Amino acid sequence: MAVPVRDPDWSSLVARHGSPLLVLDCGVLGAQYRALADALPGVRLHYAIKALPEVAAIESLAQQGAHFEIASEGEIDLLRAAGVGPRRTIHTHPIKRPRDVVAALRFGVTTFVVDNAHEIDKMVAFRDRAEFLLRVSFRSPDARCDLSRKFGCQPGDVEGLLARAAKSGVRIEGLCFHVGSQSATPDAHVHAIDACNAMIRAHAEAGGRRLAVLDIGGGFPVSYDGNAPSIGEFCAPIRRALSRLPAGTSVFAEPGRFLAAPAMTGLSTVIGKAERSGIPWYFLDDGVYGSFSGRIYDHTSYPITVARRGPTRASVLAGPTCDSIDVVAEEIALPELEIGDLVVAKMMGAYTSASATRFNSLPTTKILVLNRPSRTVRPARSTYGDGLGSWRRSGSVRIDPGSPGRHTRQRPSPQRARSKRTSTR
Questions:
Q1: Residue 309 has pLDDT above 60, yes or no
Q2: What secondary structure, in 3-state letters, does the chain show?
């Protein structure tokens, strides 16, 4: 995992900005994006805004050439605030109210996702202004969060749904899936890619509309405990599977956790201490109703360090609310802490502040942004163009199953060669 800068002086930051505090380093975001882009050459990366819905994060990734994945009107508002245009965006929520689609279309998004007959029927009203991906379910019990339980059609239902869409004039441009968050191995991705490959080829052989897009979702793991593989190692089998797709297939991915998690650090302060049944309890000014909400919603334990040294004991770190469920860590080996000590939690960028609440009417934790990109700097032009249509016009990207960072482009268009640097402003 690439972390290109040294940790700042956490105590000084807290002295200046108060506690609790979340510190977002946009330099780390950029390093994570580049690492994944090297590991998946030729794949268009759409940042899943829900992981860390911060304007600074969106601006930083836009300057790296990222595209974006949204699921709500509120996320559209974040894109607007960051100056990101709609042509870099896809809307992937499989279940939408008509007003959700209208809001996205007004912004300029034209790519949506469906996963059942009712949703296809609902989209008939928008068939002249939008194109769609069909989401397929591939269960992944090894993932931290199995995202195919709630969404996605069964593989055996794909042909019937494609036929229904074709009959009603709803344009299905490709397939998509999400095997789950924080996947333990790439096996689920490879299985899903190969299964979709078979469906795409079978549909073409049956005379159906060409399925030119495959969105492989997210699930790329980060190392909370030091056990996750490197992203290059994790993606090597995925690259090989993608290389087996029909020539000209456009491939998207929706990374969230991998980009965001290492980019933010949580700083909290011991505000109280007690001993319960012989176990030290230390009470912090942040907890599971706040920045540590991922303990509940994301099933995540964060790497925690303290500056104080000495003999350690199995201890408990608890949050500030009156609810006894508000426990950040149990049986954690800590030296004896004192009131006022600083507690540092790393890997706090994904699904933390995004799901924080104001339980007990406590304020949400302030986010301090480091290495924020200048708004006057124009973003790097995307390698892939904007939207499905421009991808098709610019020529396909072929995946090289060999070394990361290598890809070849086929059929470049003259129009593409004359294109200028784009801006999200």
A1: yes
A2: CCCCCCCCCHHHHHHHHCCCEEEEEHHHHHHHHHHHHHHCCCCEEEEEHHHCCCHHHHHHHHHCCCEEEECCHHHHHHHHHHCCCHHHEEECCCCCCHHHHHHHHHHCCCEEEECCHHHHHHHHHHCCCCEEEEEECCCCCCCCECCCCCCCECHHHHHHHHHHHHHHCCCEEEEECCCCECCCCCHHHHHHHHHHHHHHHHHHHCCCCCCCEEECCCCCCCCCCCCCCCHHHHHHHHHHHHCCCCCCCEEEECCCHHHHHHHEEEEEEEEEEEEECCEEEEEECCCCCCHHHHHHHCCCCCCEEECCCCCEEEEEEECCCCCCCCEEEEEEEEECCCCCCEEEECCCCCCCHHHCCCHHHCCCCEEEEECCCCCCCCCCCCCCCCHHHHHHHHCCEEECCCCCCCEEECCCCHHHHCCCCCCCC
Tokens 């759409």, residue? 46
List, for residues 241-255, the tens digit of each pLDDT value. Answer: 999 999 999 999 999
Place of tokens 């993932």: 143
Active site (catalytic) residues:
322
* Alpha-carbon span 265 to 297, nearest angstrom: 18
- Report residue 143: phi and psi, to 5°: -75, 150
**Between 67 and 1, residue with greater pLDDT:** 67
> Quick one: which of 195, 85, 84, 145 has its CA closest to 351?
145
| Residue 76: predicted pLDDT | 98
Q: Which domains does the chain have, with CATH numbers?
A: 26-261+375-417 (3.20.20.10), 264-370 (2.40.37.10)
